[in-house]
Design goal:
Blueprint lengths: L2 H22 L13 H20 L4 H28 L3 H14 L3 H12 L4 H14 L5 H11 L3 H9 L9 H10 L3 H11 L5 H14 L3 H9 L7 H13 L5 H14 L3 H16 L7 H18 L10 H20 L5 H7 L4 H7 L4 H4 L7 H22 L1 H24 L12 H22 L5 H20 L5 H17 L17
Helix pairs in contact: 1-2, 1-3, 1-24, 2-3, 3-4, 4-5, 5-6, 6-7, 7-8, 8-9, 9-10, 9-11, 10-11, 11-12, 11-13, 12-13, 12-16, 13-14, 13-15, 14-15, 17-18, 17-21, 21-22, 21-23, 21-24, 22-23, 22-25, 23-24, 23-25
Length: 527
């Protein structure tokens, strides 16, 4: 496999997927096919166009030329934006603002610039933030002004105004969902808060999703869930902020409210930030005036499930080696086979590949060597072919094997290898495709992809919810990488991939998942 071709096609595949995702999830209330995301689409389209031109005019430099556009204008802004959100979540707002400005410089879309301006405007104390947000509200583009005004209301702790602004937005606009959830909790409307979180959790991903879950658990009186989040996924928060949310969780628990009163009373007297002292006092006064009332049974059940999922997610430890025995074993066998290829004459030498078990139709039909249907899946054409397949196998194995078990994962992998090889062999025998040498684990790996796709479909059908965007994105990237291999390697087959994919989907139904004993997992952070 040519490295320059592989790099160029990978970058082009990612850019094509970005454009597709933007189109699928584009805001329906904005004009045009891509709305305000048009600049982001344009830069990814530039990657596609430059890649196509480079492959035609300078194939020997195609990967390098595409990387000169892709890395600074696609990869770097995404990384900076993601890190900015993480820093904001842990209260390091000045650093978050600098990272956001860096992303906006490299990719100056309206969204990136607004994120940078908004993060900068809330990086000081309350008075400075209120002034900065008021100024920003007068200069922000019209579609972003409600968001700025809602953030201004959050700074002033005017929760009724937050709800009024959020309620006036189109239901499909989820940009204020986290602030709406916070406002419902602050005003004691716990049942609507839980309903709002459940309705919008498919859009609440990343730091925003973590913060929203923390708010729901704290105002819903689930201190164990709050502690689990703060000790694991939100461990970067400062001690003062952690004490605030922990105290709030106990105060609303209805059982150990004394612990919450002690924690908030200490913050009200000793917290470094005036904001924390003031809000701690407000919650103590509200509790003294009107202690939380028992919640309806459906709301309690929803909170129990959210807390249970949180405890399961945060109790995850590094997987032991035996939990990935099949994945690691398959990678070891593939690597060993590749070393044997090199010893026998080279990983791109046809005679060496046939001697080691590549799928070559004459050997099967004339000599009855049907074992090649399986052995071909452990051979690879060049080091990049091996590395790319093993990377995808590692990603999918870590995802599936702990869920399915080692034997079931191995069964689906072997089924995919056999079905994909048999299907390609049938196409050759029927004269639909020409005879050719076939090697690679792609058919078996596509079976794992098919199994994961079936799990996503089953989850959607069972829960009647929107598809999980993160899982869909992972599947799309893995599919894209494997399609790149189709285009880059001479001895692999798209037919093998497609048949392997469907074999994995069917195989998951024939080889059911082991019974689970736990339920399935499904603003700035400064107080």
């Amino acid at each position: 496999m040519d490295l320059q071709l592989f790099l160029a096609l990978n970058a082009m595949t990612v850019s094509a997927l970005v454009i597709a995702v933007i189109f699928i999830y584009r805001p329906r209330d904005q004009p045009g096919w891509f709305g305000s995301n048009l600049p982001w689409v344009a830069v990814n389209a530039a990657v596609l166009i430059s890649g196509a031109l480079a492959l035609m005019l300078a194939p020997g430099l195609a990967g390098t030329l595409v990387a000169l556009i892709f890395l600074p204008f696609v990869a770097a802004p995404v990384l900076l934006f993601s890190q900015s959100q993480r820093m904001a979540l842990t209260g390091r707002l000045p650093l978050a603002a600098r990272l956001a400005r860096g992303a906006a410089i490299l990719h100056p879309t309206t969204t990136n610039k607004m994120h940078a301006d908004l993060t900068t405007a809330i990086s000081g104390d309350d008075d400075a933030n209120a002034k900065a947000l008021s100024a920003l509200a007068t200069t922000a583009p019209r579609e972003y002004r409600p968001l700025v005004l809602a953030q201004l209301a959050v700074t002033r702790r005017d929760w009724s105004e937050v709800l009024a602004i959020a309620g006036a937005r189109d239901p499909s606009d989820t940009s204020m969902k986290a602030m709406e959830i916070r406002a419902l909790g602050e005003t004691g409307r716990i049942e609507p808060m839980v309903q709002s979180y459940i309705a919008g959790r498919s859009a609440l991903v990343g730091p925003q999703g973590l913060m929203s879950k923390l708010i729901v658990l704290a105002f819903g009186g689930r201190p164990d869930g709050v502690a689990a989040l703060l000790n694991k996924k939100l461990a970067g928060m400062d001690a003062e902020t952690k004490s605030y949310w922990t105290g709030l969780g106990y105060l609303n628990s209805g059982t150990d409210t004394a612990s919450g009163e002690r924690a908030l009373a200490k913050l009200a007297a000793e917290a470094k930030r005036e904001r924390t002292r003031e809000m701690s006092r407000q919650h103590l006064n509200a509790f003294a005036a009107s202690p939380p009332q028992p919640l309806p049974a459906p709301t309690r059940s929803s909170l129990d499930l959210i807390e249970h999922q949180t405890l399961v997610e945060t109790s995850e430890r590094p997987l032991p080696v035996l939990a990935l025995a099949t994945t690691l074993g398959l990678i070891a066998v593939n690597v060993a086979a590749f070393l044997a290829e090199i010893y026998m004459g080279g990983s791109e030498d046809s005679e060496a590949l046939i001697g080691l078990g590549a799928l070559w139709p004459p050997e099967v039909f004339e000599n009855g060597e049907w074992w090649r249907l399986l052995t071909a899946s452990f051979l690879h054409f060049g080091p990049v072919h091996l590395a790319s397949n093993m990377f995808v196998l590692w990603v999918l194995g870590r995802l599936l094997e702990p869920m399915l078990g080692s034997l079931r994962t191995l069964a689906i992998y072997i089924l995919g290898a056999l079905v994909s090889s048999a299907f390609v062999l049938w196409l050759m025998k029927a004269g639909i495709t020409e005879y050719g040498l076939l090697v690679g684990a792609s058919g078996a790996i596509f079976a794992l992809l098919g199994a994961e796709a079936m799990i996503v479909l089953q989850s959607w059908w069972r829960d009647s919810e929107h598809f999980d965007r993160r899982k869909l994105s992972t599947l799309a990237v893995m599919l894209g990488l494997q399609i790149v291999i189709d285009l880059s390697v001479p001895n692999v087959s798209f037919a093998a991939h497609a048949s392997g994919f469907f074999a994995g989907m069917v195989g998951l139904l024939l080889v059911p998942r082991r019974r689970q004993t736990t339920a399935p997992a499904n603003s700035n952070s400064g107080v």
